[in-house]
Design brief:
The complex is a heterodimer of chains A (640) and B (70). Chain A is α+β, with helices and mostly antiparallel strands and 640 residues long. In chain A, helix 5 packs across helix 10. Helix content of chain B is 30%, strand content 33%. Classes of the chains: A alpha+beta (640), B alpha+beta (70).
């Protein structure tokens, strides 16, 4: 039976009940009342009976069967009010449940509504509008200003500010131009883009997020599994009780009442409904939670371990200072970059990148390149012998490093930078300082975490002690472990767990995978990166920023609280109903009424979670920085 | 082996999940059937040589749950 038909019958039986009530008020004892009630019982009872029959036909048990028996039984013993009210309430309760459940599922629905439906592709030089899922990999897709990007791909031409909220939960637009990757479901603000499709349809990051959230919503929390097992025993138990009571007391009316409370609906729905609301809320804010059990674990966390590079820092080493002795800075950079141009080392690559950024042309090619492991490299540039590396390497080559250079290098390292020495023909010509910048939002995030009661923060890194100390103390870490190999990281996580902490580990998901897997809760940053990230972590912060972390934890705590509230309430209702029926205070109609009310209340309580407040940025410092970003964004927009 | 998600009308009764899952799992050719209560979908993995998606949709409909898309 279609829902629409059922709804109409629900309303009809409700109307009939009202009619019966009105008639009663005017002329109690009229026969017409009974007739109206019997008709109402049938109107509402038939759809329930059909459902019961459909299940029976497939050899399945259903609660509809119990209610049908109760209604028929009530009709037989002449309790017309009961039969009419019970059948109506059952249908009406179902209707209300549907409406309120939709509210708890609203977050995911609004996310899914961001899916692009249409795409404009270039076929044979002509623009063709096609459904978004018919785009093929390699197609050239056109996105007009204000349009929704329909695929994952690379920008071939054009530039635009993109609102990536659908993926990251961030409302601050990101600038994308030629060579950048863009994602399906994001909105292009002000520019025209031509994109080559790399991932389409179900392979796009957006589709994967939706699927992940859908699956996560069904993943059971521990309390949920317990509830379901309870319900599995409860229902048959009540039926048996009902039959026994009927046989012993010969009171059919009394026995029937048990049937009405046999389904602990509120209990079964109490936990999942909160989980749906909580996960949906997270998803809208760019926090992907992989299941109800992860929420429970995250809420219990009292210590957090961070990987340094890529998590607390941007993961992109940058040149911070260039100091030249005797030559210009530009010359120094050119020299160093030309020599490092073939280097695979991240420090070397950083220097080359800086030179490219400065528009310096790298003309001369190095020869006789000699890599000194752990120190740097040495090469010949035309007729000059160049060394780029640390002091110990220079010493090895017999180069005297003057005190001015040495002092400067110590100074830089004290600041947390890695200082690279550049020598030409055994003479120091300069120092280039490189640092992996701490994320701007990191300090605020760690501060908020401490305020929320996470009293233990630790940092793990493979980087050297000085840099680690610098970063760690700035961010308020209680423990700092540096110069670690990957297996050491796992050991440290195990160690902290054994101390009794409920541990969460935050990393970038690829390098830290084993350590993340060992922690109680694994949190990965930047889900837009890889599938590996999505698979290994329990929680993914899609926006690749730390500021969502405190919110994720408070959301988990709020969801956990909500689940508990619902569970206790539902349990109380079950006890109350059972007691009420046993003492004879609760009959068919009132039993059904209380049952339905309890279910609706539980769902409504979960709806509260849907509107859980968006993360507040408490720090005024961060608000000022945000304002600057927004202002810059506006300037860019007005200039283009 | 094929896996298809069947979209149903809004599911409201969580105890009905078992009903659908049990009936489908007993069907010849169905390897796993999982009801995704919150998205009102049924995810079925089945051997298309033994049973077709139309037949599965038919079973779900016979149980009293109209199937919207699959």
């Amino acid at each position: 039976m279609k829902t629409k038909t059922k709804n109409r019958l629900t309303m009809a039986s409700g109307g009939l009940l009202l009619a019966a009530l009105t008639t009663y008020l005017f002329n109690s004892g009229a026969v017409t009342i009974d007739i109206i009630l019997i008709v109402a019982s049938f109107v509402a009872g038939v759809p329930i009976a059909i459902k019961a029959f459909q299940a029976l036909r497939m050899k399945a048990f259903s609660i509809d069967l119990l209610v049908t028996i109760a209604v028929i039984g009530a009709l037989i013993i002449g309790e017309y009010v009961e039969s009419a009210v019970v059948s109506f309430l059952f249908l009406f309760g179902d209707y209300l449940e549907g409406r309120t459940l939709r509210k708890t599922r609203a977050s995911l629905k609004s996310l899914m509504d961001m899916a692009p439906l249409e795409a404009t592709v270039l076929r044979d030089g002509k623009r063709v509008a096609i459904p978004a899922d018919e785009v093929e990999v390699g197609d050239h897709v056109i996105v007009q200003p204000g349009g929704r990007i329909p695929v994952d791909g690379k920008v071939i031409s054009g530039q635009s500010l993109i609102n990536e909220a659908a993926i990251t939960g961030e409302s601050v637009p990101v600038n994308k131009s030629e060579g950048d990757t863009v994602f399906s479901s994001t909105i292009s603000d002000n520019g025209y883009l031509e994109i080559m499709a790399e991932k389409v349809g179900d392979d796009t990051t957006f589709a994967k997020i939706i699927e992940l959230v859908e699956e996560a919503q069904e993943t059971k929390a521990k309390t949920q599994k317990f509830m379901e097992r309870f319900a599995a025993y409860y229902t048959p138990g009540i039926i048996v009780l009902s039959v026994l009571v009927g046989i012993i007391t010969q009171n059919v009316h009394f026995a029937l009442t048990f049937l009405v409370i046999a389904c602990p609906g509120a209990l079964v729905i109490s936990v999942p409904v909160s989980i749906v609301a909580g996960i949906g809320n997270g998803a809208k804010n760019g926090i992907l939670i992989k299941g109800g059990d992860k929420i429970e674990n995250l809420a219990k966390v009292n210590a957090i371990v961070f990987d340094k590079t890529g998590t607390l820092t941007k993961g992109k080493p940058e040149v911070t200072d260039i100091k030249a002795f005797g030559i210009s800075e530009e010359e120094l950079l050119k020299l160093a970059a030309e020599v490092e141009v073939t280097s695979e080392h991240h420090l070397g690559k950083t220097i080359v990148t800086k030179a490219e950024e400065e528009g310096i042309e790298l003309v001369n090619k190095p020869s006789d390149v000699d890599i000194m492991k752990g120190h740097g490299l040495r090469a010949k540039l035309i007729n000059d012998s160049i060394y780029v590396g640390n002091i110990s390497g220079a010493v090895k080559l017999g180069i005297t490093v003057n005190s001015e250079a040495e002092d400067y290098m110590s100074q830089q390292q004290g600041k947390g930078n890695t200082a690279v020495l550049i020598c030409k023909n055994n003479k120091v010509v300069g120092v280039i300082s490189i640092a992996d910048q701490i994320r701007e939002e990191a300090a605020v995030a760690t501060h908020q975490l401490k305020e929320s009661g996470i009293d233990h923060l630790a940092m793990l890194t493979g980087d050297n002690k000085q840099v680690a100390e610098k970063v760690g103390t700035q961010l308020g870490m209680n423990e700092i472990y540096a110069e670690l190999l990957p297996e050491d990281k796992v050991a440290k996580v195990k160690n902290l767990k054994s101390k009794g902490y409920n541990l969460a580990m935050v990393g970038d998901g690829i390098n830290d995978a084993p350590a993340i897997a060992t922690a109680d809760v694994g949190i990965a940053m930047g889900g837009t990166a890889t599938d590996v990230t999505m698979q290994t972590a329990d929680i993914i912060l899609m926006s690749d920023k730390l500021d969502k972390l405190p919110y994720a934890i408070s959301l988990a705590k709020a969801t956990n609280r909500n689940m508990k509230q619902n569970t206790y309430f539902a349990l109380a209702t079950v006890v109350l109903l059972l007691a009420g029926v046993l003492t004879g205070d609760i009959h068919l109609a009132s039993g059904m009424l209380i049952h339905e009310i309890s279910v609706i209340l539980v769902i409504l309580n979960a709806v509260r979670l849907v509107g859980y407040p968006k993360y507040q940025l408490n720090s005024s410092l961060f608000k000022r920085k945000r304002k600057k970003e927004e202002m810059i964004g506006e300037v860019v927009m007005s200039e283009s | 082996m094929k896996t298809i998600k069947f979209q149903l009308e809004t599911l409201t009764c969580p105890s009905c999940i078992n009903k659908i899952e049990n009936v489908l799992n007993k069907e010849n050719g169905v390897e796993t059937a999982k009801v995704m209560f919150n998205s009102s979908k049924v995810k079925v993995t089945f051997d298309e040589n033994i049973i077709t998606e139309d037949e599965i949709a038919g079973i779900i409909k016979k149980l009293g749950y109209p199937v919207l898309t699959y």
